[in-house]
Amino acid sequence: MLTGKKFILGITGSIAAYKAAYLLRLLVKEGAEVQVVITPAGKEFITPVTLSALSGKPVISEFFTANSGSWNSHVDLGLWADAMIIAPATAATLGKMANGIADNMLVTTYLSAKCPVFIAPAMDLDMFAHPSTQNNLNTLRSFGNLIIEPETGALASGLHGKGRMEEPEKIVEYLQHFFSEKKN
Ligand SMILES: Cc1cc2nc3c(=O)[nH]c(=O)nc-3n(C[C@H](O)[C@H](O)[C@H](O)COP(=O)(O)O)c2cc1C
């Protein structure tokens, strides 16, 4: 059902970034073409080599390519995609997206995207529950973005609560459902 679909997978600096590799693998297995865009902080959590090997495309992170005078076009990328999926989405990135703070390639691409945008937050329970995060999520909902709610369970911090990024299989099911509904 996702065959031939073109996706931007946005990855941010969350401990859940390791799950993005599996999500990418599943999307490619489903026949989708996936371009990864990762924040500078995201690269501290998962290596671009892994993501580029799984997607078959160079990973985009910076605006400029060192010393060559070339740059990555967020506008072209935003127009290319059938959907943008930001998984995991940190509290910092949610805040930037909600407020148009386009200081990295991921948020700039988000602002240029004309396609549906799916957001899978991942953070500690108190960060997720904070009114700032909830306000940002409500703002993003009001823009028509689709929030894939985090699960309640054990968190990397050792605490227990709502904030775990939804499992990759469930995110794929969510996308399949969305595109099947769209077809009918
Ligand atoms: C070990 C570690 C784990 C982190 N995990 C998360 C997380 O799951 N969610 C989150 O919102 N921030 C998390 N942070 C904080 C973000 O990495 C930080 O806010 C960063 O600036 C996010 O940048 P980005 O959104 O541009 O990727 C973590 C930081 C560290 C050091």
Number of helices: 8
Oligomer: single chain
The CATH architecture name reads 3-Layer(aba) Sandwich
> Strand share of the residues?
15-25%
- How is the biggest beta sheet arranged? 5 strands, parallel
CATH fold node name: Rossmann fold
- Category from helices, strands and their pairing: alpha/beta
- Our Rg estimate from Cα atoms comes to 15 Å
Low-confidence stretches: none
Q: Mean pLDDT across all residues, rounded? A: 94
* CATH H-level superfamily: Flavin prenyltransferase-like
Number of E-type strands: 7
What order do the strands of the largest sheet run in, or round the barrel if closed? 2-1-3-4-5
**Domain count:** 1
Distance between the termini: 13 Å
Name every ligand kind in the structure: flavin mononucleotide
Your description of this structure?
This protein is an alpha/beta fold and 184 residues long. The chain has one domain: Rossmann fold (3-Layer(aba) Sandwich). Helix content is 42%, strand content 19%. It is built from eight helices and seven strands; from the N terminus they run βαβααβααβααβββα. The strands form two sheets. It has a five-stranded parallel β-sheet with strand order 2-1-3-4-5, sandwiched between helices. A two-stranded antiparallel sheet has the order 6-7. Strand 1 (6-11), helix 1 (17-29) and strand 2 (33-38) form a beta-alpha-beta unit. Helix 1 crosses helix 8 (168-183) and helix 4 (91-99) packs across helix 7 (131-142). The radius of gyration is 15 Å and the shape is globular. It starts with 5 loop residues before the first strand and ends with a helix. Flavin mononucleotide (FMN) binds next to helix 4.
